[in-house]
Amino acid sequence: RDPLIYYGGLLHIFNHAFFKSLLFLGAGIIIKVYRTKKVAEIRGVGKTMPWVSVMMIIGMLSITGAPIFNGFISKSILSVGFQSGTTQYWLLYLVNIGTATSFIKMSQIFFGVSPLSYPMARKRENFALMGFGLMCVLAGNLAIPVSQGFFGVDVSFVKIFQLSKFVDYIATLAMGYTLYSLVISKDLWVVRKIRDSRLSFGSANAVFLGLLVALVVYFSFLA
After folding, report:
1. 3-class SS at 171?
2. CB-side exposure of 216: number of CA atoms within 13 Å?
């Protein structure tokens, strides 16, 4: 099953480039309009910026692995490659729950009332958002025939429209919402400490490289 892990990982890097770019671009537009980065201070984006909201939701569905979007394909391939019950499988599952939790928190920005108005004549921004959003949907629906037809990788086990996959996704969101409600929304001391921490560019790079080295060591020698 190792080839599936490598292919799924490579495909996820490719998919990540699309939905993360979409989310960063959308977040940048929202921050520019609202003049704040704090989620608690941003409300009413759904009404103020409907097109940006639709594209952001596509990005959120993609990164959390919703069926018919690109993240679902690569995560499904990885979960099969890791095999159910292994450490890697559960790590992937826990990371997905954590991702769902963070975006459940972020989804609050779409609701509520905002006094701001947003000029709709931003064609370049809308075009860029649409391009990334379209790729998230196309890659989610064409990845299977492309994988088999062009790369000779059999991923026929991935079923996009299988009911159980939608149930699994809803269960992941439910666990993410529970984690958010019981821990994150309580604004516990440890949560505030992490949220209010400030890392320099050098420190952030050191943390990232340390994490990367730890992952390489684990998957190369310990997994």
Report:
1. helix
2. 6
